Amino acid sequence: MTAEDPDRGPPGYGPYGYGPGPPPYQQPPWYGPYGYGPPPGWRRPGYNGEAVAAFVLAILSFVLVPVVPAIVALVLAHVARGKIWASRGGYRGLGLCTAATVLAIINLVAAVFGIAIAAGHI
After folding, report:
1. Considering its fold, how many domains does the chain have in total?
2. Owning domain of residue 77
3. Which of 8, 17, 57, 93 could form a Cys-Cys staple with 48, CB 3.0–4.6 A?
4. Which of 106, 107, 109, 84 is nearest to 95 (CA)?
5. Is residue 15 part of a domain?
6. In sequence order, which residues have a C-beta less than 8 Å from that of residue 51 and are 6 or more positions away?
7. Residue 38, number of CB atoms within 10 A of its CB
């Protein structure tokens, strides 16, 4: 150490005599906007057609004859849910199945209440 700079070590060393220090930080190589990305040829799985049909029928059951499309939507949603689970990621559409089931049940309950009110039981 010199008398002029007590924080410097011997010549060739950094502060406090610990060596020259690490090299400056460098940016990693550029891999694209989102990292590596999917492998070549990969496509996002599509929606199951029966799930889409069940959802459409569940919506149409509010406009058309309420009972028949709602029952068909319940059956299609159940079948589609099984196929989606069995595909292990090959199909999407579990949300459509759930929405179709909920809409069909609401429609069937409303139809039962409507028939009961029309018959004079409620």
Report:
1. 1
2. 46-119
3. 93
4. 84
5. no
6. 76, 77, 80, 81, 84, 91, 93, 94, 96, 97, 100
7. 9
Cα 53 to Cα 3, 49, 71, 97: the distances in Å are 87, 6, 12, 10
What's the pLDDT at 92? Answer: 92
Token pair recorded at residue 52:
């889409």
Per-residue pLDDT of the chain (122 residues; tens, 9 = 90+): 445 555 555 565 555 556 666 666 666 665 556 566 667 777 888 999 999 999 999 999 988 888 999 999 999 999 999 999 999 888 999 999 999 999 999 999 999 999 999 988 77
Integer Cα distance of 64 and 55 in angstroms = 14
Residue 113 in any domain: the answer is yes
**CA 44, CA 53: separation in Å to the nearest integer?**
20
Residue 23's pLDDT is 67
Identify the H or E element spanning 70.
Answer: helix 67-87
115 belongs to a structural domain: yes
Please tell me the distance from the alpha carbon of residue 31 to that of residue 17, in angstroms, as a whole number: 39
